[in-house]
Amino acid sequence: MQITGEPKQRELTSGEFGAYVDQEITIHGAIHSIRMMSDFAFVIIRTARETVQCVYAESFSDYRLAQNVVENASVKVTGLVVAGADKEGNVRYELQIHNIEVLSVPAELPPVVINKKQMQCDLNTKIDYRAVTLRNPKERAIFKIQEGIQRGFREYLTKQGFTEVHTPKINFAGAEGGTNVFSLDYFGKKVFLAQSPQLYKQMLVPVYERVFEIAPVFRAEHHDTSRHLNEYISMDFEMGFIDSFADIMNMETGVLKYIMELLKTEYREEVDLLKAEIPEITTIPCIKFADAKEMCVRKLKHITDMKDFEPEEEAFLGKWAKQQYNSDFLFVTHYKSIKRPFYTMDDPENPEETLSFDLLFRGIEITSGGQRIHDYQMQVEKMRKLGMDPDQFETYLMLHKYGAPPHGGLGLGLERLTMHLLGFKNVREASMFPRDINRVTP
Ligand code: AMO
């Protein structure tokens, strides 16, 4: 065996077939479906990102369809590229099959039908059979779009001078407080799974000034809800030398604009397939929490927890932002101090409120962020006020003790963003292998 270092060529896509009209090419894929017509057959091949229409007829091939050319067989198809038109008159290319080499034959038929436009089973079945149901073009498109979101986040922030980092997921303490932290027996010691990269991303600000991370985080959610997962992908960034937390919100607006443009261009086929409504973003309106709450109480007329929103109130605010500003997004700022974690900076003008925000997208929270405390004394005092022991956070507090610039950042839930972009009612639709209170498989 000789290793040349030459990467194996990627598959041609149908968009590139135009350069090969009347020439023979070879593609690899799986048999997605076979439709027998009177004197020919459509053999649809599922390749890495699309389905390619191939036509088989005895009239143009010496090859005869073999018995083992069955759905989900892995094949190598050789054929002639011919140009035709679709119903709308757009040029479409197909392959006139000259030969099919079967590389692997499935042992059984799939347990669910995957070659119809839409999966015809409920969400639980879809997840139970993920290894197979993800092959359905629409299911596959969801996670291709999710790739686009992460790619946009990464590309934009890299261009803005951010350094990509990875922080540990087995930690000495939960970063966000609350009861939804998983604990773990670590050789006889109690440790925790990261609820977010919060403490570490802050520690890295004096090092790189701007950092981001895209990684799984863990929340022991005790309830089975349509918007909570026990493991989700958090897209975080943290930046130093901010003038105010508006810098964070501006950066997020830029990231989201970039992501939406990327989806509209490089993920067009998936966007069309899923009929996704990609939001137009110019600027994102802002409202203070107290004003938003007051409006909710006035319009929805029930007495609620005055320190936070109910899901119904968020939904109302989403509609309000759409009507008032024609915006799918709304920043809500200055959340109550009592409701935000210990690292959040209180507003010096009103210490009951914080220099923090949430971003609502179509009426659901997808981001939390804000300015952090950078002063050592201030951080220690806030911890004590909240009944925390600063000695337990010695490493984290080195950040403050040995000098940190004014800084802030945010965490954006990838599955939540995907869910609302694609109009799903359940976040599990947007999680490839969801983990919730009832599920750790597949
Ligand atoms: P927070 O806890 O609000 O903030 O989380 C940030 C975002 O993560 C998503 N999210 C979830 N997604 C799915 N399942 C869950 N159980 C779940 N919990 C949260 C949401 C949410 O807006 N450290 C801060 C962020 C920061 O200030 O930088 C944090 O983690 O989209």
Q: Give the biggest sheet.
A: 8 strands, mixed
Helix content bin: 25-40%
Fourth-tier CATH superfamily name of the largest domain: Bira Bifunctional Protein, Domain 2
Total helix count?
12
The 3D shape can be described as elongated
Mean pLDDT: 96
Please count the beta strands (DSSP E, at least 2 residues each).
18
Q: Pick out the low-confidence regions.
A: none
Name a few traits of the molecule.
2 domains, OB fold (Dihydrolipoamide Acetyltransferase, E2P), 5-stranded mixed β-barrel, elongated, 8-stranded mixed sheet, single chain, binds aspartyl-adenosine-5'-monophosphate, 28% helix, BirA Bifunctional Protein, domain 2, 442 residues, alpha+beta
Structural summary, described in words:
The protein has 442 residues and is of the alpha+beta class. The chain folds into two domains: 14-104, Beta Barrel (OB fold (Dihydrolipoamide Acetyltransferase, E2P)); 137-430, Bira Bifunctional Protein, Domain 2 (BirA Bifunctional Protein, domain 2), CATH 3.30.930.10. The protein is built from twelve helices and 18 strands. The strands form four sheets. An eight-stranded mixed beta sheet has the order 6-10-11-18-17-16-13-12. Strands 1-2-3-5-4 form a five-stranded mixed barrel. A three-stranded antiparallel beta sheet has the order 7-9-8, with no helix packed on it. It is elongated, with a radius of gyration of 26 Å. The chain binds aspartyl-adenosine-5'-monophosphate. Aspartyl-adenosine-5'-monophosphate (AMO) binds next to strand 11, strand 17, strand 18 and helix 12. Aspartyl-adenosine-5'-monophosphate binds at residues 176, 196, 198, 219, 221, 228-229, 232, 234, 236, 365-370, 409-411, 413, 415-416, 427.
